[in-house]
Design brief:
Helix content is 25%, strand content 28%. The chain has eight helices and 17 strands. The strands form two sheets. Strands 8, 9, 10, 11, 12, 13, 14, 15 and 16 form a nine-stranded mixed beta sheet that branches. Strands 1, 2, 3, 4, 5, 6, 7 and 17 form an eight-stranded antiparallel beta sheet that branches. 43% of the residues are buried. Bound molecules: 2-OXO-4-methylpentanoic acid (COI). 2-OXO-4-methylpentanoic acid binds next to loops.
């Protein structure tokens, strides 16, 4: 592909539409384990209509991003953490676990081949999407005997890059995303499809995202489906963060984990403690909650401005991006783009991209 054609495709990339030219594929079978790792041109798959992944949802995925660092090399943010989470997700769905080193090698191979697709403009990135699904054609309801790992990559501006206003979020009080003992903490395909109807309903109410509540009492805030949530409590000079604790129903976000550390670097403690809707509403009314934001690989750090429920709506803080959210967002993005020292060893530099 010519540089000109590539630049044209990267101009308005959306999310998952502008794929690069290669993928990595690795097969697992019960008799041979992991084998046939190959880098090949991006192309359509041939799948059996009776493929288990399509019917029973034995499918897990990941999301991580690559950036052109300030020194021109390519950096990937915390690929080891994504690899480990994919292993945990796979375990939950009775799937084979790809070794962490093989995962990182696949990331390196793809980025070396598709180096030209890694954007250098701040705000843009190359999103890597590892996918593992049961590819066996056999519809017995048991763990499959054959799986396919695919690593693909696409250019993106981020899902909220063109969102000028802070998020307006919808409290979903009828459906639930995850129940205790379920798969909420796994990054599996089946956690996403059931959220789409509520997301559609949120849109109809002029909201950008759904806030998911716990399945038992329907009163505790959990996450936003594709992203985690943080609350910033006052006083403004010494803020403290609150984020719901991981208890099996919440996705353990790599961005969530990174922000807890970055906040600590700034002297801001994070309390991993439950926040109810009533507490959220009261803290905003009483002025103790100054800010709230969503975070994730795709979402980065995005402020929440307004909360809408069936009975009322309220504004968080000033309804705009506050200083704590901004500082955390900047600190994270400075690491992504290599404009701040990588003191936590989170940036994996792709060999041969210097
Ligand atoms: C990510 O942030 O990488 C995600 O996987 C969320 C995505 C489903 C939009």
């Amino acid at each position: 592909m010519t540089g000109e054609h590539r630049a044209e495709r990267m101009r308005t990339p959306g999310f998952g539409r502008v794929l690069t030219e290669h993928i990595v594929s690795i097969t697992w079978t019960a008799d041979r384990g992991w084998h046939d790792a190959v880098l090949r041109p991006y192309d359509d798959l041939r799948l059996a209509p009776a493929c288990v992944g399509l019917h029973y949802g034995q499918s897990v995925f990941e999301g991580l991003k690559a950036y052109t660092l300030a020194d021109g090399r390519v950096g990937v943010f915390r690929p080891d953490a994504a690899a480990r989470r994919m292993r945990r997700s796979a375990r939950r769905l009775a799937m084979p676990q790809l070794p962490e080193a093989v995962f990182v090698d696949a990331v390196d191979a793809l980025l070396q081949a598709d180096r030209a697709w890694v954007p250098s403009r701040r705000g843009q990135s190359l999103y890597l999407r590892p996918l593992l699904f049961a590819s066996e054609a056999d519809l017995s309801l048991r763990p499959a005997h054959e799986y396919t790992f695919l690593l693909m990559a696409f250019v993106t501006d981020g899902i909220f890059e063109h969102q000028v206003k802070p998020l307006r979020v919808w409290l979903c009080e009828d459906h639930v995303r995850a129940a205790p003992g379920g798969t909420g903490e796994a990054k599996c395909a089946g956690n996403y499809a059931p959220t789409l109807l509520s997301q559609q309903q949120a849109k109809e109410r002029g909201c950008d995202q759904v806030v998911w509540l716990d399945a038992v009492e329907r009163s505790w805030v959990e996450e936003l489906g594709g992203m985690n949530i943080f609350f910033v409590m006052g006083p403004a000079e010494t803020p403290r963060l609150v984020t719901p604790p991981l208890g099996g129903t919440i996705l353990p976000g790599v961005t969530r984990d990174s922000l807890i550390t970055l906040a600590a670097d700034m002297g801001w403690p994070t309390l991993q403690q439950p926040m109810s809707v009533a507490q959220w509403r009261a803290a905003c009314a009483g002025g103790e909650m100054l800010e709230a934001f969503a975070c994730g690989t795709a979402a980065v750090v995005t402020p929440i401005g307004t909360v809408v429920s069936t009975s009322d709506e309220w504004v968080v803080g000033g309804g705009a991006m506050g200083p704590v959210t901004r500082r955390l967002r900047d600190a994270l993005m400075n690491l992504h783009y290599g404009t701040a020292p990588d003191t936590h060893g989170w940036v994996h530099v792709v060999p041969g991209t210097g």
